[in-house]
Design a protein that fits this description.
This protein is an alpha+beta fold. The chain is built from 15 helices and twelve strands.
Length: 412
Amino acid sequence: MGRIAGRFVRVEPRLRAGRLVLGLLSDLPRKNCWTIAEWAGEAGPHGMQHLLCQAVWDADAVRDDAREYVVEHLHDKVAVLVVDETGDLKKGAHTVGVQRQYTGTAGRIENSQVAVYLVYAGERGHAAVDRELYLPRSWTCDPDRCRAAGLGEETVFATKPDLARTMIERFLDAGHQVGWVTGDEVYGGNPTLRLALEERGIGYVLAVACSTEVPAQAGKFRTDRLVKRVPKRAWQKLSAGRGAKGHRFYDWAVIDLADPRPGHHQLLIRRNRATSELAYYRCFLPQPVPLTELVRVAGSRWRVEETSQTEKGLAGLDEHQVRRYPSWARWVTLAMLAHAFLAVVCADEHARNPAPDGLVPLSCNEIQRLFVTLVIRPVHDAAHRLGWSDWRRRHQARSRISHYRRQAASQA
């Protein structure tokens, strides 16, 4: 928290931000302004709500501080940037960015809010270093709706690959170096993103659809047709990295593409050893690398799913109850910072105190349990608990009266 202290004009919001981050790291079953304020010993939720809505502090500057913290502690020469989106299911139509849209969280079209994240994935650990909220055209084409949600007058529609490019360029412009970028088909199918990476000399291994046409020596072919030309001897059994149940082994093959642009362009193909299901990756290599390196980068894409799960499960990333964009940016940024703390502590413990025989290494989940139990578990007396009970009941009574009044007015 000392890293971000200078981002706050007054001491009160700075201290409250620290309590909010501790609340995000707590074992509360549900994390929002109400539950965290009660857990932190405050008399009501208004202070936490003020921190997210009206207090003077720069969420983007804190985001940059979190990025520097992650890179400083998790840096290594083989780190990969992973881009991916995640959705949070939401009710109503007033929360910024919400509409009926596909979200992988539910696996179908739902009323949801979608954001794109940039994850720094190294050998020591992985954590999100940037975030951008995806705003559908139904929002950007409605200036009044955007204004009510706290979005600027300059807000324009941007695709998810556009948001990914913005975050990658922001990372590079901050002076950081990385050799590879990876992501799923949403990003691999976007030529503008691929060209931007090539121009900056950044290699990529981006998934593409089976219907994608790629340039070969004899012309353009769909990837699912081109794979039929791969001889049996070209397939190699390689691990895409460790998973929860051991190494993830697949069969892999690579085809050189006839792309006239500088660098080396290849199509990487992954085949499931059990089902023979195929996956395809468009690759750009500033310099030639072995197949094992492409497989390593492709396997790094799973890191973003792990990051999203732990940020939501341990740091309350998706549990915010805010409607306007500034509040969303503040909540998400502090949740990213809380998760980054766990990732850094986990990496440092693995380096300084390797697990003895018979014990698995400490995970972020276990570190959170120990941190909550040994360091931050608050103890409040009965008066505090009863005071919050009265506050909730009073608020519920006001809400019920307001609801009855609106109902009576609509029926008049």
